[in-house]
Amino acid sequence: MESVEGKVAVVTGAASGIGLGIARAFVGAGMRVVIADNRPDAVTAAVQELQAQGHEVVGVPTDVSILAEVEALAEAALDSYGAVDVLCNNAGVGLFKTVAKTSIEDWEWTLAIDLWGPIHGVKAFLPIIERQPEGHINATSSMAGLLAVRALGAYNVAKHGVVALMATLQRELRAAHSPVYASVLCPGAVNTGIGRNSVDSRRAKDGVAPTRSPGEGRDEGEVDVGAAFEAMDPDDVGKLVLDAVLTNRFWIFTDPRMLLSVQDQVEAMVEDGALSRIRAF
């Protein structure tokens, strides 16, 4: 995409963290942005922040696990701006539990948001974006989508699925000579508060007060992947996503050093079929 000036982007999970960082990068480049998140108060705050800076932004409270709400988000974007050029499927949650301690309800909740959310996004928005001369669909996975780290079973499964979804989509778009491109963001340690927010959100769904015991709600950087890395600012991640949209790049990483563990894993597959350890830097 040669320029994003005046283009329209929809970003889910955009009221905080990486999503808000993406939204800030986009409006800074002259885009009009639709902020979607399942927390109405947070949506309002994010919209007010960006509008106060003179940017064109609207907010739409959305639960990405529900297809009808994602379809309503698409309609709201069209009603506001008449088109959608870029979609970032960023909304996500992560519960720090071992596979043995993850309930079926936890599995269903995590997969509904982290995997079905991007699926719903592609289903609802791809036909709309394909009406434009050029477009882009991005989804947020994780380094945990390439390296299955401990104590994040449901998250790992969902994020591996997001990588597969976007890689498949990109191959199909290229085979069809489509003007739309796809990309996947695989962040490591980012200062987002995803662990704390996820625990609160999961408990709210069950009607339980959002209080945590010691050790609950850790951020991803505190478990295996990214454990030895300084957490990146979400605004810097947003700039990486903007650059990928402008250059049609598929893979987006926040710290390429982590790819050494991916390389180790592939080499172990070829050499002896063992599951390699994740490097500690």
Q: What does the average pLDDT come to?
A: 90
CATH topology: Rossmann fold
Total of helices: 9
Kindly report the name of the CATH homologous superfamily: NAD(P)-binding Rossmann-like Domain
Beta-strand percent range: 5-15%
Order of helices and strands: EHEHEHEHHEHEHHEH
- How many strand segments? 7
CATH architecture: 3-Layer(aba) Sandwich
CATH C-level class is Alpha Beta
Fraction of helical residues: 40-55%
Classify the secondary structure makeup into a structural class: alpha/beta
Distance between the termini: 36 Å
Largest sheet: 7 strands, parallel
**How many discrete structural domains?**
1
Oligomer: single chain
Could you explain the architecture of this structure?
The chain has 281 residues and is α/β, with parallel strands linked by helices. The protein has a single domain, classed as 3-Layer(aba) Sandwich (Rossmann fold). It has 9 helices and 7 strands, in the order E-H-E-H-E-H-E-H-H-E-H-E-H-H-E-H. Strands 3-2-1-4-5-6-7 form a 7-stranded parallel beta sheet, with helices on both faces. Helix 1 (17-28) links the parallel strand 1 (8-12) and strand 2 (32-37). Helix 1 (17-28) crosses helix 8 (234-247). The longest helix has 23 residues, at 153-175. The radius of gyration is 18 Å and the shape is globular.
Question: Topology of this protein?
Answer:
Elements: E1 8-12, H1 17-28, E2 32-37, H2 40-52, E3 57-61, H3 67-81, E4 86-89, H4 104-114, H5 116-129, E5 135-140, H6 153-175, E6 180-186, H7 194-205, H8 234-247, E7 251-253, H9 259-271
Parallel strand pairs: 1-2, 1-4, 2-3, 4-5, 5-6, 6-7
